[in-house]
Design brief:
CATH topology of the largest domain: Alpha-Beta Plaits
Shape: rod-shaped
Strand order of the largest sheet: 1-2-4-3
Number of helices: 4
CATH class of the largest domain: Alpha Beta
Helix content: 55-70%
Number of strands: 4
CATH superfamily of the largest domain: Ribosomal protein S6/Translation elongation factor EF1B
Number of domains: 2
């Protein structure tokens, strides 16, 4: 009976069809909005992660560029000349300074040298070790041996092996 009343009146039928269409449209709109919100949250999380990775990448890139620049700064032909320059700048003389071996490690060359300095005080030893570690060319100290002089316990004999890394 209600079915007959609704179907017999045209206005009621149109109003009912509009109400049903409006309800379906609202349901679809809410579902679509919820899906878009979920996608937006996922993309926001990905964007934050990419931003963090970008900052970390820039930090690592700066470190690598600094190390590459240091390796590329080798104005020195050999480890012996680099050590001689350091000793001259400090006013020290080496009793023995001789090159040892050259090793090829991938695209880099590691060149070793042995140095022996007599009559050196503790302050100059520390300054020399600091200069080698913080030199503008990539150098490292492989071995160091310090002995006291027989005549004076405040004077030392320094023997060390240093290496220069270059391309």
């Amino acid at each position: 009976m209600i079915k007959k009343i609704i179907l017999s009146d045209r206005r009621t039928l149109i109003a009912a069809a509009i109400a049903v269409a409006l309800a379906v449209y609202t349901l679809i709109a809410f579902t679509s909005a919820k899906n878009l919100e979920i996608k937006n949250n996922a993309l926001t999380a990905q964007l934050k992660e990419m931003s963090d990775l970008g900052k970390e990448f820039i930090y690592i890139k700066d470190i690598v560029e600094l190390k590459e620049k240091k390796i590329g700064l080798t104005n020195v032909n050999s480890v012996v000349s680099a050590l001689e320059q350091m000793l001259n700048s400090m006013g020290l003389k080496a009793k023995v300074i001789k090159p040892l071996e050259k090793k090829q490690v991938r695209e880099f060359t590691e060149e070793d040298a042995e140095i022996e300095i007599e009559n050196i005080d503790l302050n100059n030893i520390i300054n020399l070790l600091y200069k080698i570690e913080n030199s503008p060319v990539p150098m490292k100290i492989k071995t160091a041996n310090i002995k006291t002089a027989f005549e004076n316990p405040n004077v030392f004999i320094l023997s060390l092996t240093a290496s220069l890394i270059s391309r």
